[in-house]
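Colleagues,

Please find the record for the three-part complex below.
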Amino acid sequence: MAKPAPTVQGGQDIEAHVPQKELGPVFKAASGPARWADERLGIATLSRPFIRKVFPDHWSFLLGEIALYSFIILLITGTFLSFWYKPSMAEIEYEGSYQLLRSVAMSESYASTLAISFDIRGGLLVRQMHHWAAALFLAAMLAHSLRVFFTGAFRKPREINWVIGVAMLGVGLIEGFAGYSLPDDLLSGTGLRFVDGLVRSIPLIGTWAEFFVFAGEFPGDLIVSRLYIVHVLLLPAILLGLIAAHLALVVYHKHTQFPGPGRNEGNVVGYPVFPVYAAKAGGFFFIVFGLLTLMGGLMQINPLWTYGPYNPAEVTAGSQPDWYMGFVEGAIRIMPNWEWHIGGTTWSWNVFLPGVGLLTGFFVVMAIYPFVEQWVTKDKSEHHVADRPRNAPTRTAFGVAAMTCYGMFWIGGGNDLVATQFRVSLNAVTYFLRVAVFVAPVIAFIVTKRICIGLQRADQERLLHGAETGVLERDPSGSYSERHAPISVGEAYTLTQYKQQPALLPAQDGDVKAKEMRVEQLRRRASRFFFIDDLRKPTRAELEEAAHHGHDDDHALTDGHEGNGHSGNGNGHHSIAAGTQQNVVDQ
Amino acid sequence: MTDLTPRNSGHEVDDQAQQRSELETVRDVERYPVPDPGLPEHLPRLSDVDEKAADRATRQVATMFGLVPVLAILFVVIYFAVPRDAVFLGQNAKNIGLGITAGLALMLIGIGAVQWGRQLMDDHEMVDHRHGAASTKEDVEYVLRELDAGTDESGIRRRKVLGYSLGGALAALGLPLIVSFADLGPWPTKRVRAATIEETIWKEGIRLVHDVTYEPIKASEMVIGQLVNAQPENLQEFHGTEYLQEKAKASIIIVRMDPNDIKIPEERRDWQVGGILCYSKICTHVGCPISLWEQQTHHLLCPCHQSTFDLGDSGLVVFGPAARALPQLPITTDAEGYLVARDGFSVPVGPSYFERDSRGDFKGE
Amino acid sequence: MRFLSSRRRHPAAKALLLVLGLFVMGSLYAVLAPAGQSSADTGTSQQVEEGRALFAVGCSSCHGLNGEGQSSGEIQGPPLAGVGAASVEFQVGTGRMPMARPEAQAPVKQNRYTPEEVAALAAFVATLGPGPEIPDPSQYDPAGLSEEEIARGGELFRTNCSACHNFEGAGGALPGGKYAPSLYGVSNQHIYEALITGPQQMPVFSDGVLKPEDKRAIIAYLNTLHEQPSQGGLELGGLGPVSEGLWGWIVGIGGLSAIAVWIAAKGTKAK
């Protein structure tokens, strides 16, 4: 703490929320042990800022919690599993209770996983909970990061938290892969074989990386125990550290909130941690835990006794990794077979580009996006109010395009199942996706941007002309018009609260130093690409004028009015500048 | 609005910043066309005004919590009493039972707690003021000043060699650290590669045997359209890790096709026996074993990434991400008519790697 | 009568009428539709002649009157010399043949021939050239195998079959719109026949190489695998991580998002 410690007598005067109320009997009883602890740890001072911390309320803010709770459940169920799992690749003959594998040769890790599934009571339930929690952990992280992206919650001061989040997504991916390789069944062994080929294909260092990872040729006898330590010690430790940093920053910055009456950049409105969020968030933890338990009991996942132990000469049709590696799998499948043979060397682009290349590219692009957007907007102010996605159309369109590209790769990962389930040719699916991964995101970008602009226009309509009431009026001349009711000030404030980014005209000589000119022109071009299609927010004057006219419209039915109840020019707007595009600003 | 300005938290709250943000929405007409109307009026819930509704909600929550011990006991009963292989609705009874009881118990605690928070806890919205993320000017200046003073006191400014030598010393520690990992695996030098990934246990005279059963295969027993998943007979001499390592390279498939329907290059005429050809089973893409063979098209499809090889054309790639033809094993028959290898593989089997000399692979004619 | 007519405008009237109409049509069809011919004849040469007659009606348009095959034109059928009686029993018994239309692969559909007719067709085709015979029940009956032998059948299955048919026998994709079909609900006889005849793109696994006792073990493994109760819950199709991921997202993220909406909802207000 920056301040010197308080003096012994009295301490600070504690400002209670309801100063008149007397502390109840429970508090009186607890005050003894509490004081004992406080005299050694200073817990009152520590808890003071947090005890009534306010968190805003929105369902989409709970997605990150799903990830956090899944992780905790992974730790709990994983610890249980580790009491029986043996990370050894030594070969034994199976003598457990699953008769369809009687006397089959297998590794100890596989046999111990079978023991957990069949011979330890409740073992299968915990194992399936663990695997479902892993799938949910990554799905929740992805959903949460999409929410953060589309609401612009990665902007200053939260860029570092975004990067930490991207790091957790990446570490989680590897953690999941290491985890499902531990049972050493046919499916996960096939996945390890794939990784062996992937690592081997890295130009220049491939065989070195392969021999160092597997301690020699594939499969060797160390990979499972190495992955075990990665999975239970190294990566969970890193994840715990990242989670602590991530949550600390959320507490320090306070959570973002959606726009609304009473909410602005300088405050946070919601409910206090104690007791409301303790109940809601704590309750949600139990709900997530309960749902994962139900899934573990009712939905089978990875029935490794039917896959059999890993055997390098066996494979199953429909070999896929867990869903979160699906996009890499898809890229590997649809990639054309480009390989260079230069002299005595082989450069396997067909494996390296979709494997290492796509993975790196995905995380790098995700991590740097906040900084790219900041470079374009040069917006140095802090943002604590979430954007409505329609008010940042280009960002939203980029996000949907990225999701579409990811989705195309994801479909590619299951292209053989697409072929069988939908009765189409496998080859046709592959050819289609080779084109779709490039074309579909472009289409998605255009469509999304147009939808956002359309939604902005709808907002504009509500602001200037009020809400449609569904009540039709007929004037003496016979034309129909719909009555509009003005929207509440709260809603008007919500619709206009966002910060509009200007699209900049090209720089003139003298705006910046000569050597910065090229970069500055590029930046301004980018800002035009981002913002030129955005509707300009109506000014306060325009809104007042529109409200004034709205009142008049209700009563005056003189000529000059069109059938839609407005006076004015052909496009139905009587404010000349409001609602038009071209928010170009000469800066 | 309650002032929850934290004190003693280490953050100095800028009073002016607070007021600034509240007035900003009124004064900054351009940024805020509509001024902030303030928090909407708090509307009470049914349970706030109607005591009966509140009691009902209380009963709901208490009931949910009350069911949990019942489910917990049920869990214990199922754990001990239900036999391991009991079946319920076509599924393992124990797994379902434990999952449902524990899952419902946990969910009821959660739903009860949430319902308590939603219906019964005070739901007045509170307002907390934000502080800027940056530190106060005083803090920044203090820290910079003290850093400067401390640096001066350390003497490093005058005696720069202290700093440089310390930096060099710490950096030098990186060397032992990195070198300590040099035995993570054998170094894949040319010699080691030749003895490991470029070598299989196939030699001249080794019999081809059926995988799993290890029975030798008579050429005359194979009919046109037949596929055999096979191994070298000497694979049985290996165990454990070595067994897996050799199997991962030596696995083969044998197919019989009508010689009139396929292309056999001149130099491979004696690699086959009457239309019986033998290929490596290990995909040249990333190493999955392939045995999806289409009898009529002679195409071999790898299920992992759909690389397709034409076994009627020396294993050339016809579709998919694999870049090299499937290596072919030259075979012949021995005196008793069983299939044997004429030689080992002429190229390394399995996935590509940088140092692989791919000039020996079959490229087509 | 008044009971019905006074309710003719009842909201349920239309639905009930539709159901009644379907029921009537279905019953009429069942009563009036032509039944398959039954033949109680025995004797090989008579069987062959009957088979020839059936063949002429149901098979010759693609395969030629003498099973010589057709490779030109839109409708093609391979020559049947040497396919053997087992092929016919398999193809016709599973309903694959006659194909309803030319397509990449003959799908399983309902078999329209009686067992006697199938036997007659098989007898006829067997005369076209020597080929695999219909197996004896002792060859494909898995009774009496020990647990180790059944487990070995599993190893054989995973080495020879799962690459196309998937680890549970749920089927898999082949190039060009073809597929390895699901093995659920396939009779032991048909599995054996498929192994020895190699239907369409499936390779042949002749008895000389994959011995009959190995085939029995594979059949025993499949039977046990499909009969055993699911250990972990709903099988989600037995298709592996793709369906698991799909359901994980739907139930997990979808369900929890719905619950999150409930948690954060403002709820009804009293005013």
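The first strand of chain B starts at residue 87 and ends at 88.

Comments are welcome before we finalize the supplementary table.
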